[in-house]
Amino acid sequence: MQTIRGFRDILPEQIALWQKVEQEAAALFESFGYREIRIPIIEKTALFARSIGETTDIVEKEMYTFEDRKGDMLTLRPEATASICRAYIQHKMYAAEPFRKFYLTGPMFRRERPQKGRYRQFYQIDAEVFGIDSPYIDSELIFLLHTLLHRLGLAGLSAHINSLGCPDCRPDFQKALLNFLGDRKDKLCENCQRRLVKNPLRILDCKAQTCRQALEGAPATVDHLCPDCRTHFETVKNSLEKLGVDFMVDDTLVRGLDYYTRTAWEIQTTTLGAQSAVAGGGRYDRLVEELGGPSTPAIGFAIGFDRLVEVLEQLDDQTYEKRPDIFIVSLGADAQKYAFEWSCKLNTMGIRTDTDFRGKSMKALMKRANKLNAALVLIVGDNELTQKKIVLRNMETKEQTEIGIENLVNDLAQLIKN
Ligand code: ATP
Ligand code: MG
Question: For the Aminoacyl-transfer RNA synthetases class-II family profile domain, which residue ranges apply (predicted)?
């Protein structure tokens, strides 16, 4: 049996970097007042179809949708924002205080063509803010993302930002776009010919080469913003400059989901080949209301966790493998009895202790201690047990000392913690 195409195992040898990223992210989010939320990975299909948009790639061809035994249409979540909105509305979180900040880490599912940096089950680190339309929150989120990536060692990244406008200015832009596409219709891919009628803005995000060419010189949303959207975008840019965040305005950036309004952004790297986006986000001021909640401005981003780890692996030859504090070499049945007891006790005290009960030779056990890169080795044999003195070897300095058996666990703990 093998994993399904596009799905993969993340093995213990690889996990240290994942944990490091998760811990850094949680610590940073918590200090900015974000709270973790955990929600199901399956929702009713309608939630995603309505929020992400019927004519997006995700809904048109990438969702894992199935009928359950009672005939309900269900979908493995392709992203987290819609589900978090659902939870926000379902639990009436807006009632006591609409201004809420969340973060979430977990798997998402999209049936795309698998390749490096693109999987059918992938992970995202997500942050969302509800109930506030201030441009400072847009900047806070971009700053957070920038800071996190910087702390993880990814320097020199620039955020591509754009403003997509709002329902007030969009009709004007849409008119300009349709005008522009008027005599280029035949050059668009089949999909986009349909979109021309149903959802022309989607064409801007089409990856097909022909469409990319047809769009050269297309009008930009930033040139059609209403005064409020323009002021909002100016404040975002100015406040990012103040904080020293590197960004560039990219007026071709529209993102693959229909619910975005105003600020949208993406962080790209050059080290991932075609899969260049490590993170993306945007404002979605209409979505909570469209899903049946009260009118609530909101904004968020998602980091592609798999891609981030792949970039970090390329940058960094450091291994984050945790080494044992101590390895117990036990020779003989009696020694094993002690080794078992001591290692259990030391481990519960937070001192990582490894041992081996396979009855191997001294030489083999020392080799194993070396391989695990243990800082200290405790060597226990019949001799040591009768003399009630155990040999402790510092693997770095090669220094050996003796330690009494009576109070061994506490003495060792003391020694290691100092
Ligand atoms: P792309 O343009 O690469 O398809 P996207 O715009 O579809 O990305 P979003 O929906 O914005 O991606 O999701 C946010 C992040 O999640 C992306 O920037 C990317 O790093 C990651 N991501 C998206 N799809 C996948 C996937 N199939 N496998 C791995 N990571 C992914
Ligand atoms: Mg995509």
Answer: 1-324
